[in-house]
Every structure is written in structure tokens, then in C-alpha cells.
């Protein structure tokens, strides 16, 4: 495996549960050394977190001043819009298997290849849009393994809200949830008109009354990285300070 510090690498991880092999991205920060244990940030739609969010640069800036703890960034990229619908959407045919892949197989791969802290609170899941929904899905399925999850403008429907209502261990979770104020009427990547603001507010109404760590922010802007990127610094501080 390529272990050059300060670079984004790719690896292939075989999944028995999905019966296929996934490309995984990983970033080892500058001055990375296996002598220290690291937190793990896992991003979904990872190529966008690197390209548009520039998450590794934001991490590096905070880390140089030792404002946050050591971490590696592991990512699951998407190969196409259709792929996201099958794997990241809660209504997708491969969604449940993909959640299991992350919760069991990907985690095992990470902990066996890198010197990680290997504790629930040392892991943070992140995603935007459908990938944000997926981050919440993994946390809901594995609250004692992945309690920390971030979702920028997730796709939410009534069935997804029911997943939260039927999870008895919400107390374990530490969620960060954002939605843009311009997302009441916009065109999705699939070219369909959508209202994400109303269902996200509905999810917020439920979560506000539950006994979990929960940060909810309504942001100026729409369903784009220009809205999400400025949040990354405060999120990294939120979980890794």
C-alpha cells in the first residue's frame, strides 16, 4: 500500500457482503507517521470532499496549529449518479449491503492498515446530499461503532425519518445536520425539481426532542459545495478539537 504522507491515494477493498470490490481513497496528512494513533474521518462522495470541499487542506491548516487531533481521511467515491442511487440512497437496492460493508469490512480494512485509535468516538462519518443520508444510515445501523455523523443537505423522506424513530440507541449519537435555505425548490443532479428544506426541517423537529448530541444549522445558500465547504472547519473542530 502507498503510504506517502500529504497525498491522496487509492486502494481496492474487496467486499464479501456486496460481492464486489470497491475503490477507496485515503489521505495521509503531512508529517504522517505510524508511531502515533489517528482518528478516522470517513467521507462518502469522497472525490467531491477532496476536490470541492478541499477537506485535506482545511484539516492540515488546523493541524499545523495543533487545534485538532491527528486524523487520516478515508473516502468512498461514487462512480456515477446511478451508482449513488443504488448504493447511497436509503431506497436503493444495494443500500443495506453497502451500510454493512462500511460498518464491518471497510472498518476492519482501515484498522488493519493504519494505526488508528480504534474507538467509536475517534471516527467521524461525512457526506452531502445522498451521501449525507448514507452517513446517517451507517450511524443509525452502528451507533456504538460510528456515533459521529455529518450530513450536508441529506435526502430525507418519511421512511427515512421512521428509521430514526425506530432506533432505540439515539442517545449514542453525535450528529451534525445542515440544510440550505434555498433548497425548498431546486433541480437535483438527476434533473428533477425537489424540496429538501421541508423534509429536513421535519427530521430536525423530531431530533430536537431526542436525547442525543445534535447540531442543526440552516445555511444561506443552495444544494452546492459553496454552501457546505465553509462548515468543514467548524465540523473538524467540533469532533477533533
UniProtKB/TrEMBL annotation:
Coiled coil location: none
Superkingdom as given in the UniProt entry: Bacteria
Protein name: Enterochelin esterase
Organism expressing this protein natively: Lacicoccus qingdaonensis
Amino acid at each position: 500500500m502507498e503510504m506517502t504522507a500529504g497525498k491522496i491515494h487509492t486502494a481496492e477493498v474487496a467486499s464479501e457482503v456486496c460481492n464486489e470490490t470497491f475503490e477507496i481513497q485515503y489521505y495521509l496528512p503531512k508529517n504522517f507517521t505510524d508511531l502515533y494513533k489517528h482518528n478516522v474521518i470517513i467521507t462518502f462522495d469522497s472525490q467531491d470532499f477532496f476536490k470541492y470541499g478541499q477537506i485535506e487542506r482545511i484539516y492540515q491548516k488546523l493541524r499545523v496549529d495543533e487545534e485538532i487531533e491527528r486524523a487520516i481521511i478515508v473516502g468512498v467515491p461514487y462512480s456515477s449518479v446511478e451508482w449513488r442511487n443504488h448504493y447511497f440512497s436509503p431506497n436503493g437496492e444495494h443500500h443495506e449491503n453497502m451500510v454493512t460493508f462500511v460498518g464491518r469490512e471497510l472498518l476492519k480494512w482501515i484498522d488493519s492498515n493504519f494505526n488508528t485509535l480504534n474507538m467509536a468516538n475517534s471516527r467521524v462519518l461525512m457526506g452531502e446530499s445522498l451521501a449525507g443520508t448514507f452517513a446517517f444510515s451507517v450511524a443509525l445501523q452502528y451507533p456504538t461503532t460510528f456515533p459521529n455523523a455529518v450530513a450536508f443537505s441529506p435526502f430525507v423522506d418519511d421512511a427515512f425519518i421512521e428509521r430514526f424513530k425506530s432506533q432505540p440507541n439515539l442517545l449514542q449519537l453525535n450528529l451534525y445536520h445542515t440544510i440550505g435555505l434555498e433548497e425548498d425548490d431546486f433541480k437535483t443532479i438527476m434533473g428533477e425539481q425537489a424540496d429538501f428544506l421541508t423534509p429536513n426541517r421535519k427530521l430536525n423537529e423530531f431530533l430536537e426532542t431526542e436525547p442525543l448530541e445534535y447540531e442543526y444549522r440552516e445555511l444561506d445558500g443552495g444544494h452546492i459545495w459553496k454552501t457546505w465547504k465553509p462548515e468543514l472547519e467548524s465540523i473538524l473542530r467540533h469532533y477533533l478539537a
